[in-house]
């Protein structure tokens, strides 16, 4: 008997539907001839808590740290025992197993850890499904691979799971105990992704609060030429006059972006420019025209979709993930959503016309766009070398029933479909003209743009139902407009001139979109140039599947709060970042972890050195925990106020795989750390005011 183990029940049903013959549902599995399909329900197993290794670890104590298992243990999740029993019974009857976890690192771990736990030693095939439509599942069933090929992916996932347990459990215990010494009554959770992410927000908030605006003074002219007029701006950084003053020892009033910070030079020049009203008092120094071609944006990865959906529809990242899961599992309208890839296999190109025409049906706008598509075009998106375990999000070709979709599902489906449809439109083409003029020996610059072919941009006019607004940057810098015909050397004059007073602005606070984008491009936030170069090849902070949940985790733990669209750090979040060693709160460590995990997967590196180095690192970090530093931070920082929480309830945590709960019990509370172990705490009445 062949036993197929799917990651979740919905995938098991899709596999059973694609098998030949009739299928029958049994208790915990589906039977189809000599094939049986069973399933996991997420992770059926979890890392054992410290007290499973040694009873004395139930009591949290600094003297126990670091806790490092000699032999790792997994234990069944309480709600998973029934399904584990089903799988165990079916394995006894099986001659071959097919691993049908999701096509990513976590999916590989989720099923394979069950097989390892049950000591299965028979043959294992790998079934990779990214599209739950029956034809796609049938194709995948005909392309089974040897699971041994994916053993390095399992080793990387296992190393990540163990490293997260070691790092999160030990540092959470250490800083919770340190917090008590500093007067903070509560669990202080530390993790390899959540803490650097919190650090990004804390540093951005402090940068905004400490920002001192400075005035700057752009000088503009309206220049008249033979064919009309144009507006140009003084290029103070290239000014010969200011350069001469600098040569005489005068400090130039320019910032690092070339902005003029003193109005007096601009006022002096403006008075002279106002006299240059005769054609020939100035001239066109240079005209540089070039035709530009802009390809269509690639199909979405999950993170890219979360960024755009947050900007366009104000959707939190977790809502985007949940909605995509519904489109994938319940409606079967899109392919596997937790993908970090923005490319499609070349073999998909041949069938895309039929898929896209069906996928666009039922929506007037999409139908119109599909009617104008040229499905013979092959864009840069169809690139096998860029596709690994999974490809970009795409419609499956199933006809959508918009009556069954809620508003968010419909909006995200349209976005995903439109980005794929854009691959079958020509590039957006325009002519860009850059002009430099000279008046009184001073340089003035401007640029203009003329449309040649709208191309794919036709598809990206404001979507119906969107409530997105232009950001401040786009309001400050309107798109270039066409310029009059110009020739180098032609005469010019000043029609008008003026000086504007503007202020430098602080950076924008982070929001869902910019935080997801920051996690995708974490190298931008690394100060060391050598490390930054290394990290450009790493996927980023966290994974497609965990980024959205991490934002919600930080909110649930009281470290972040949403204020409108902005993410703001709270007092306890700021104090923790200020007190922690910088190495814990900066992104270099976790991004380098991802690089090492990729090397385990892609190059077959052993996981043992990675974990050994982590333990050495942990000892140094534990030695650097400081109650006095935390106490000083708690006394000095401000921060946003977290939303009030209900008492007597519980809140889920994603640090490691554990829970953090608070409940009343004889006038005292019990805190559960990242490893799920208990630590006795003070009665609620004695808690410090303002602690989270």
Description:
One of its GO terms (molecular function) is DNA binding. This is DNA topoisomerase. Belongs to the type IA topoisomerase family. It catalyses: ATP-independent breakage of single-stranded DNA, followed by passage and rejoining. Helices cover about 35% and strands about 20% of the residues. It is α+β, with helices and mostly antiparallel strands. The protein has four domains: about 1-145, Rossmann fold, CATH 3.40.50.140; about 160-210 and about 510-635, Topoisomerase I, domain 2, CATH 1.10.460; about 215-295 and about 430-505, Distorted Sandwich (Topoisomerase I, domain 3), CATH 2.70.20.10; about 315-425, Orthogonal Bundle (Topoisomerase I, domain 4), CATH 1.10.290.10. The protein has a seven-stranded mixed beta sheet. Residues about 465-475 and about 645-690 have low confidence and may be disordered.
What's the structural blueprint in terms of helices and strands?
Blueprint: E1 2-6, H1 9-18, E2 24-25, E3 29-32, E4 35-39, E5 45-47, H2 50-53, E6 74-76, H3 81-93, E7 96-100, H4 105-117, E8 124-126, H5 134-141, E9 145-146, H6 151-181, H7 194-209, E10 215-216, E11 219-225, E12 228-234, H8 240-247, H9 263-273, E13 282-294, H10 302-313, H11 317-329, H12 352-359, H13 364-371, H14 407-421, E14 428-439, E15 442-453, H15 472-476, E16 491-499, E17 502-503, H16 512-520, H17 529-535, H18 547-556, E18 560-563, E19 566-569, H19 571-579, H20 582-585, H21 588-603, H22 608-623, H23 627-636, E20 650-652, E21 659-661, E22 664-665, E23 668-672, E24 678-683
Parallel strand pairs: 1-4, 1-7, 7-8
Antiparallel strand pairs: 2-3, 3-4, 5-6, 8-9, 10-17, 11-12, 11-16, 12-15, 13-14, 13-16, 14-15, 18-19, 20-21, 22-23, 23-24
Helix pairs in contact: 1-5, 4-6, 6-21, 6-22, 6-23, 10-11, 10-16, 11-14, 11-18, 17-21, 19-23
């Amino acid at each position: 008997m062949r036993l197929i183990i799917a990651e979740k029940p919905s995938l098991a049903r899709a596999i059973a539907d694609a098998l030949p013959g009739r299928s029958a549902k049994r208790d915990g599995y589906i039977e189809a001839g000599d094939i049986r399909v069973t399933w996991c329900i997420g992770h059926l197993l979890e890392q054992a808590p410290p007290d499973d290794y040694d009873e004395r670890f139930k009591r949290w104590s600094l003297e126990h740290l670091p806790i490092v298992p000699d032999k790792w243990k997994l234990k069944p999740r309480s709600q998973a025992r029934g399904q584990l029993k089903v799988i165990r019974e079916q394995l006894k009857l099986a001659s071959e197993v097919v691993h049908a976890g999701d096509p990513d690192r976590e999916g590989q771990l989720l099923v394979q850890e069950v097989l390892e736990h049950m000591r299965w030693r028979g043959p294992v095939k790998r079934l990779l499904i990214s599209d739950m439509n029956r034809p796609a599942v049938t194709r995948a069933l005909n392309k089974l691979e040897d699971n041994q090929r994916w053993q390095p992916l399992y080793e990387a996932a296992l190393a990540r799971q163990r490293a997260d347990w070691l790092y999160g459990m030990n540092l959470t215990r250490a800083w919770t105990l340190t917090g008590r010494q500093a007067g903070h009554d509560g669990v202080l959770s530390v993790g390899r992704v959540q803490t650097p992410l919190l650090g990004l927000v804390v540093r951005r908030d402090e940068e905004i609060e400490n920002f001192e605006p400075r005035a700057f003074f752009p000088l503009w002219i309206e220049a008249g030429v033979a064919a009309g007029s144009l507006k140009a701006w003084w290029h103070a950084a290239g000014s010969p006059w200011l350069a001469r003053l600098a040569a005489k020892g005068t400090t130039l009033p320019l910032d690092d972006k070339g902005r003029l910070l003193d109005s007096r030079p601009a006022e002096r020049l403006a008075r002279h420019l106002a006299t240059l009203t005769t054609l020939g008092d100035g001239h066109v120094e240079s005209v540089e025209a070039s035709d530009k071609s802009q390809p269509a944006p690639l199909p979405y990865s999950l993170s890219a979709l979360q960024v755009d959906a947050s900007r366009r529809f104000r959707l939190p990242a977790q809502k985007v993930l949940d909605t995509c899961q519904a489109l994938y599992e319940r409606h079967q309208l899109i392919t596997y959503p937790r993908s970090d890839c923005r490319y499609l296999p070349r073999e998909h190109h041949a069938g895309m016309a039929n898929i896209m025409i069906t996928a666009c049906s039922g929506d007037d706008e999409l139908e119109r766009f599909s009617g104008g598509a040229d499905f013979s075009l092959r864009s840069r998106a169809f690139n096998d070398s860029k596709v690994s375990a999974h490809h970009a999000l795409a419609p499956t070709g199933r006809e959508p029933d918009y009556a069954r979709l809620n508003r968010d599902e419909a909006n995200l489906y349209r976005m995903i479909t439109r980005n794929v449809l854009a691959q079958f439109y020509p590039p957006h083409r325009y002519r860009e003209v850059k002009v430099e003029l000279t008046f009184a020996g001073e340089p003035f610059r401007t640029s203009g743009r003329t449309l040649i072919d709208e191309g794919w941009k036709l598809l990206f006019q404001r979507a119906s139902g969107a409530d997105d607004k232009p950001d401040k940057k786009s309001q400050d810098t309107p798109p270039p407009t066409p310029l009059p015909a110009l020739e180098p050397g032609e005469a010019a004059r000043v029609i008008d001139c003026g000086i504007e007073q503007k202020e430098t602005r602080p950076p924008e606070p982070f929001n869902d979109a910019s935080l997801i984008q920051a996690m995708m491009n974490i190298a931008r936030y690394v100060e060391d140039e050598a490390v930054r170069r290394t990290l450009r090849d790493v996927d980023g902070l966290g994974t497609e599947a965990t980024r959205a949940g991490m934002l919600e985790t930080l909110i649930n733990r009281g470290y972040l709060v949403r204020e409108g669209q902005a993410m703001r750090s709270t007092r306890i979040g700021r104090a923790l970042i200020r007190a922690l060693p910088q190495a814990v709160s900066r992104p270099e460590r976790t991004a380098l972890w991802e690089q090492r995990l990729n090397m385990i997967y892609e190059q077959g590196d052993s996981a043992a050195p990675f974990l050994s180095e982590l333990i050495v690192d942990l000892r140094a970090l534990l030695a650097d925990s400081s109650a006095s530093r935390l106490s000083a931070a708690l006394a000095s920082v401000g921060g946003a106020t977290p939303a009030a929480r209900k008492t007597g309830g519980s809140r889920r945590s994603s640090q490691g795989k554990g829970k953090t709960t608070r409940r009343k019990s004889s006038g005292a509370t019990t805190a559960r750390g990242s490893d799920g172990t208990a630590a006795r705490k003070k009665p609620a009445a004695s808690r410090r005011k303002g602690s989270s």
